[in-house]
Write a structure and sequence with these properties.
The structure is a single chain. It is built from 22 helices and ten strands. The protein is mainly α. It is elongated and about 140 Å long.
Length: about 700
């Protein structure tokens, strides 16, 4: 007789050894590995089973073999005795396998159809599940009432949206069939309210710049509306070029026009998402760069001729004895604006493409050997002192704009003082700060404009130095070699201004601490009756006016604008004010110098543009002779790649970071606290698949 089955390959040797010992050799065993591995029905493991066929003599031997097979967890199968029975069994197994294959194939097709239908409904199911989880997460933060039949939620809600919230709760109660109607009730709290600033797709980029510095305290002046103009303008001062600004503007305009495209919105690149979210900011930066580029008269480092030049070489040549020998011995020539017809007035807009406008102490020098071949609009590129003039012009422009920017920041602090009803700060902080800033650096701006207006080309040689006057102003001295700009400049004007600036420092240092100290003594228990009543009435009036849903006036002031709300001890108040005074007084000096980065970055951008043009494109035009038309294609490609990589990306990022620093440190530091936290309302944020 025969016993057939399969066994795990690890148990073959022990199984064969035990069979031989138990049956004393009255058997013939044959072991063969399966050609392909099969899955174990018990464990699911893929195993290459071993098939065995045992021939034995005697019924007792057969019983032993079956018992040993059971002990080794062998899968035993019936083995027919006759050849015909074995063939019938094989045919039956093959037909069963075919039937099972057909059933499995039809089942897979059915499951595939079901999954295809599920894929269409899966996004909707995912949204529903996420919304349900979000709703239950919020409900779990609520608390039960005494009867445990209602949920109580304490939330912040804007006053403007309070009516909508009440209507939504009323509709929810009606649709759910609840027997208890939902209602809203204002509750008092000592917590500082969160800050909600409503933005749209245009203002979101500018607000994110301000929020990166710090979220505005509750009801504090928000710098973002002013940054919509000042930030692109300050960036454009450092990035002024018509060509580069136009490329940036067109790139941002493309993102704005196709902002609803899914391919742009669903980009996985983080850098691309940063550019796309700030597309309106880039759009304004490009537009302002075009404007300042026309002011600088630069387009890819080359000057443009929009209006006729005010300088005339012919008039200078007619009034001068420029012979061939004179031109051979003089490498450069000077155009004298005092000669009739040489300089006919200022350029209508921006910088003259032929030469620089006349400034005190600067002459227009030209290369003599090219003089006879020059048309009037070509002289600008050959002027040897244009960089010196641009340095002077951009340096003074940076100082003027910086002081105006800082003064505007100090002025915005008035709105905070008035809104939070801290009138004493108008006299004890705002007034000394403004006097200190204007008496010193505002006077510097006045000197710059006064010198521009008073001195012309006729007397520019005797124009005094503003820098020496400004240094002597602090030293209370005068320089005989540096003549005064006007009568009485040193005494009494500059002396009075310095004295006013010095007097404002102790007022700024001691005014607020002494006022708060005297006010605290006035609010002792013996005198607190009428004052407390007045403060309570003012508090009620403030809430009736719609300041905050849950905040009292003290809560509002705790956002960082009220030292007496934070610092109870007089020494702490004094220390806080001393730090503020030192920071402001030293900051006025350092911040004014910090605005000189406008001059440095603008000069660097212009020089890099000029170097790139002269080293790449100019060689393509000059040194390639008759094959220039063919070689100019890769030369222009290299010029375009370097322009985008260096001047647009690297220089643009550098100018952006410097403009960011000027707004954070120099501008917002004058009035902005940024000690609040955002309102994070419950909302279903739209995803890409919604």
């Amino acid at each position: 007789s025969f016993v057939a089955g399969v066994i795990h390959p690890w148990r073959v040797s022990a199984f064969e050894r035990l069979l031989w010992r138990a049956c004393r050799g009255y058997l013939v065993a044959n072991f063969v590995e399966m050609p392909e591995p099969m899955e174990d029905p018990a464990t699911g493991e893929s195993i290459t089973w071993v098939i065995f066929l045992i021939s034995y003599w005697g019924e007792q031997i057969g019983q032993k073999i079956r018992k040993i097979s059971d002990c080794f967890h062998c899968h035993v199968y019936p083995y027919p005795e006759s050849e015909t029975s074995r063939a019938d069994t094989m045919n039956g197994l093959h037909s069963q396998i075919q039937d099972l294959s057909v059933v499995l194939e039809e089942t897979e097709q059915y499951l595939s159809q079901v999954l295809d239908k599920v894929m269409l409904a899966l996004p909707t199911w995912r949204v529903q599940v996420q919304k349900m989880k979000a709703i239950y997460l919020v409900l779990n933060q609520c608390s039960f009432d005494v009867t445990e039949k209602c949920l109580i939620a304490e939330v912040w809600c804007p006053v403007r949206d309070l009516t909508q919230v009440q209507d939504a709760l009323r509709q929810g109660s009606y649709k759910s069939g609840s027997s208890v109607e939902c209602f809203v009730q204002r509750i008092p709290t000592s917590e500082s309210p969160p800050t909600l600033i409503r933005t749209n797709k245009f203002t979101a980029g500018f607000q994110s710049i301000v929020d990166a510095y710090g979220v505005a305290s509750y009801q504090e002046v928000n710098p973002a509306p002013y940054a919509i103009i000042t930030f692109p303008f300050i960036f454009a001062i450092m990035f002024g070029d018509v060509g580069h600004g136009l490329v940036m503007f067109l790139f941002a305009l493309w993102m704005v026009l196709y902002e609803n495209s899914p391919s742009l919105q669903q980009g996985s690149n983080e850098i691309w998402q940063t550019f796309f979210e700030g597309r309106y900011l880039i759009l304004l930066m490009g537009a302002f760069s075009i404007y300042t580029g026309f002011i600088y008269n630069e387009c890819f480092s080359k000057a443009t001729v929009i209006f006729p030049s005010a300088w005339s070489v012919a008039a200078m040549a007619n009034h001068s004895s420029w012979s061939s020998a004179y031109l051979a011995t003089h490498p450069s020539l000077t155009l004298d604006p005092n000669v009739t017809g040489v300089f006919q007035g200022p350029y209508p807009f921006g910088i003259d493409p032929v030469s620089v406008p006349w400034d005190a102490g600067w002459d227009l020098q030209l290369v003599a050997r090219s003089l006879t071949f020059l048309s009037p609009w070509q002289i600008w590129s050959l002027a040897t002192n244009h960089l010196n003039f641009l340095n002077s012009f951009k340096m003074k422009m940076s100082v003027v704009l910086g002081i105006v920017h800082m003064g505007f920041g100090v002025l915005l602090g008035v709105f905070n003082h008035v809104h939070f009803q801290q009138r004493h700060r108008l006299v004890l902080e705002f007034l000394p700060e403004m006097v200190f800033l204007l008496a010193l650096f505002g006077y510097l701006v006045f000197l710059i404009f006064y010198k521009w207006i008073k001195f012309s080309s006729a007397d520019s040689r005797v124009a005094p130095s503003i820098l020496i006057h400004f240094i002597n102003m602090f030293l209370f001295t005068s320089n005989a070699d540096n003549l005064p700009l006007y009568q009485g400049q040193v005494v009494p004007v500059q002396m009075v201004l310095v004295v006013l600036a010095l007097v404002s420092v102790p007022i700024l240092l001691l005014g607020t601490p002494l006022y708060l100290h005297c006010r605290r003594h006035a609010l002792k228990p013996g005198h607190a009756g009428p004052v407390a009543v007045e403060e309570q009435e003012a508090l009620l009036d403030g809430q009736e006016a719609g300041n905050s849903v849950n905040a009292s006036k003290e809560d509002v002031e705790s956002g960082g604008h009220s030292p007496d709300a934070k610092h109870v001890d007089f020494s702490e108040i004094f220390m806080h004010q001393a730090i503020h005074t030192i920071e402001y007084c030293l900051g006025c000096v350092s911040n004014t110098a910090s605005y000189l980065r406008l001059w440095a970055l603008s000069l660097a951008h212009a020089q890099l543009s000029e170097v790139l043009w002269s080293m790449v494109m100019r060689n393509g035009f000059v040194r390639l002779s008759y094959v220039g038309g063919v070689v100019l294609v890769p030369v222009f490609a290299a010029f375009a790649v370097l322009t985008v990589a260096i001047l647009l990306v690297m220089e643009g990022l550098s100018a952006f970071l410097h403009a960011l620093r000027l707004h954070w440190v120099e501008f917002q530091n004058k009035f902005y606290v940024g000690a609040g936290y955002k309102l994070c309302p419950f909302a279903f944020a739209p995803d890409s698949w919604e």
